[in-house]
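We close this part of the discussion by returning to an individual protein. In the encoding step, the backbone of a single protein was reduced to a row of integers, each denoting a local shape. The sequence in question and its structure tokens are set out directly beneath this paragraph.
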Amino acid sequence: MPAGAITGYIDVAQLTLYAFWLFFAGLIFYLRREDKREGYPLDSDRGGGVVVQGFPAMPSPKTFLLADGSSVMAPRVEAPQGPIAAVPVGPWPGAPLQPTGNPMTDGVGPAAYANRADHAELTSSEGVPMIVPLRADPRYFLAAEDPDPRGFAVIGADKAVAGTVTDLWIDRSEVVVRYVEIALANQARTVLVPMTLVRVLGDRRQLSVKSVTAAQFADAPAIKNPESITLLEEDRISAYFASGHMYATPARLGPVL
């Protein structure tokens, strides 16, 4: 038999290939089970007692130690959510849901958000809030080559003026702008808009937000602390403004073609 052969039909290279296949199959099984630590079991519209988890089954609970010294268990028993402001369009399981109120504020469809912790995310080095306005940390500033949008008018999808930019919120860890702070016109409040949904028109001294109309800025979720934002507030604000691409006007609900 040639070198490396165990029998006339099996050699070391063949066994190595089989071992790799077994390892890779086991890795897929492990990863597919581990990714079910959050969000499972799914809620079923077929009534109580139905566990929707697929294959493989959910892993046994594990406790994770967080950087701030706290711990979290996953999977875990989640608190029951309130009624959804939507009804099925048909009597069959899995039927699409039709919103019954204002889906942008009711958290339905693309406006849905996760029930994240209601505290600010902290930096790993200093243990301070990660996302803050520029006014809260003078170490950060805008590059001289970029336009400074503070003082720019904010224009909604209907071309009407929603307010004026008062500040920018910086991510201290990534050193990028996360939110634009806007003082609403004729209202004594400010709102935050995700920077990813904003287009800066420097030559016009304007910021364009096409996902919502000017009037819809007033219903945007508020924050508790004017100098920091919580994880839950981030999800709610992002969901509200992003969902406007579908819910802001009745025309956006129809098919593209």
In short: The domain at 118-253 is CATH 3.90.50.10 (Photosynthetic Reaction Center; Chain H, domain 2). Residues 12-34 form the longest helix (23 residues). The longest strand covers residues 161-171.
